[in-house]
């Protein structure tokens, strides 16, 4: 699959923009702050229902406008598909496919992309919320239905937290909180599915990650991913995050042999019982997938804290390449579109060449660069110049 035409209205600094695209490699080049990243950010939204730069959709609407529209004409073999989303400042977003209304959360069914960005270094060095977002976005791309499961789970956590805070304020005893048990069962049902889905994906990523890391770094340092589950270690260290309270970093890595809908649900239920008093004291839901983490390892050591800058970059690039390979292997609509947002500027010459070799056979690759010399010549890219929210030359 490739994007044949991209149209934007009131998106970021674009009042109106229309861009014809082709298969192969295209480089958007121009000074920083002109709108290169805004173009590829719009495509990322169609694929993941989110931005790699902000968690608030309204931030992508041009100042002074009430709504922004992203419209992409997609082509796969001899079939074309028009996919559109309208981001509204004061109401729910709306989506269309071939001019027929669809739920916004269904958009990933029709378009797939993988974004590489400087922010990816935070996958290795940043907070648990960054790693949760990575795995959850990939889950939705592979199974769009899970966008609804994730939204429902987040809503249950919010409602349960409200009940816990109210109980704390009113000093209600645990024995009087029968309503909490109703929320517990729904939390366990949705949370167990997310935990198990994440675990299955972690297992599938193992071999593609190892191959991708070796391709980028030139050595095999046995990269490994495993889950750190709060339901198996509720007494771990806590760290404040932007995802609704502290995230437990302790717990048992992996635990794949114990996972499965029944075993996970029972462990979740036992964990909730074990932290009930602490939850009432804190007014927060202290266990569940919203507080889990992924552990990344190189040569049996945690990448966070032990990996060098180059090794961290190789791991982050390996994660994105492995994601692209998984999507490519199972997709009925062809390769995902690869988007590299100013990534080559962050890499040394060896990793630039290695990455160029790893992405060159994908159907469509879109690259942003402030300086054209950062992009390896062997990619043979088509050039598009961007200035102040306008396509000024092709």
Automatic annotation (TrEMBL):
Residue numbers binding ATP: 30-37
Identify the InterPro entries for this entry: DNA-binding_RecF, DNA-binding_RecF_CS, P-loop_NTPase, RecF/RecN/SMC_N, RecF_2
Decide whether keyword Oxidoreductase is in the record. Answer: no
Reply yes or no: does the keyword Nucleus apply: no
Intracellular or extracellular location(s): Cytoplasm
Span of the signal peptide: none
**Stretches assigned to the RecF/RecN/SMC N-terminal domain:** 3-370
What Pfam families does its record include? SMC_N
Q: Which UniProt keywords apply?
A: ATP-binding, Cytoplasm, DNA damage, DNA repair, DNA replication, DNA-binding, Nucleotide-binding, SOS response
Q: Where is this region: Disordered?
A: 237-260
| UniProt similarity note | Belongs to the RecF family.
Briefly, what is this protein's role?
The RecF protein is involved in DNA metabolism; it is required for DNA replication and normal SOS inducibility. RecF binds preferentially to single-stranded, linear DNA. It also seems to bind ATP.
Concerning HAMAP family, the annotation shows: RecF (MF_00365)
Instruction: Return the protein name.
Output: DNA replication and repair protein RecF
What organism is the protein native to? Answer: Gryllotalpicola koreensis
Name the lineage.
Bacteria, Bacillati, Actinomycetota, Actinomycetes, Micrococcales
């Amino acid at each position: 699959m490739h994007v044949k035409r991209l149209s934007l209205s009131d998106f970021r600094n674009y009042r109106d923009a229309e861009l014809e695209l082709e298969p192969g490699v295209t480089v958007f080049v121009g000074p920083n702050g002109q709108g290169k990243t805004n173009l590829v950010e719009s495509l990322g939204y169609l694929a993941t229902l989110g931005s790699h730069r902000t968690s608030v959709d309204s931030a992508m609407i041009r100042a002074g406008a009430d709504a922004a529209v992203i419209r992409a004409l997609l082509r796969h073999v001899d079939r074309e598909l028009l996919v559109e989303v309208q981001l509204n400042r004061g109401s729910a977003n709306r989506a269309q496919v071939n001019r027929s209304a669809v739920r916004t959360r269904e958009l990933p069914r029709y378009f797939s992309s993988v974004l590489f960005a400087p922010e990816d270094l935070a996958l290795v060095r940043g907070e648990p919320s960054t790693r949760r977002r990575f795995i959850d976005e990939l889950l939705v791309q592979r199974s769009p239905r899970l966008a609804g499961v994730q939204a429902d789970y987040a809503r249950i956590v919010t409602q349960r937290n409200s009940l816990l805070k109210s109980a704390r304020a009113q000093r209600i005893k645990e024995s009087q909180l029968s309503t909490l048990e109703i929320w517990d069962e729904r939390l366990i049902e949705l949370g167990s599915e997310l935990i198990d889905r994440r675990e299955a994906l972690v297992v599938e990523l193992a071999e593609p990650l190892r191959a991708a890391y070796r391709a980028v770094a030139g050595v095999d340092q046995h990269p490994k991913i495993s889950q750190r589950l709060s339901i198996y270690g509720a007494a771990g260290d806590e760290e404040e995050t932007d995802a609704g309270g502290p995230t437990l970093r302790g717990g048992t890595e992996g635990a794949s042999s114990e996972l499965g809908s029944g075993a996970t649900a029972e462990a979740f239920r036992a964990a909730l019982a074990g932290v009930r008093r602490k939850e009432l004291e804190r007014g927060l839901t202290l266990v569940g997938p919203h507080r889990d983490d992924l552990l990344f390892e190189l040569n049996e050591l945690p990448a966070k804290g032990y990996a060098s800058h180059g090794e961290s970059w190789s791991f982050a690039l390996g994660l994105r390449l492995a994601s692209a390979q998984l999507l490519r292997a199972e997709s009925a609509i062809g390769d995902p579109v690869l988007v590299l947002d100013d990534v080559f500027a962050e890499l040394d010459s060896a990793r630039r060449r290695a990455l160029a070799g790893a992405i060159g056979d994908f159907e469509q690759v879109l690259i942003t660069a402030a300086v054209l010399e950062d992009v390896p010549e062997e990619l043979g890219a088509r050039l598009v110049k961007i200035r102040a929210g306008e396509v000024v030359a092709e």
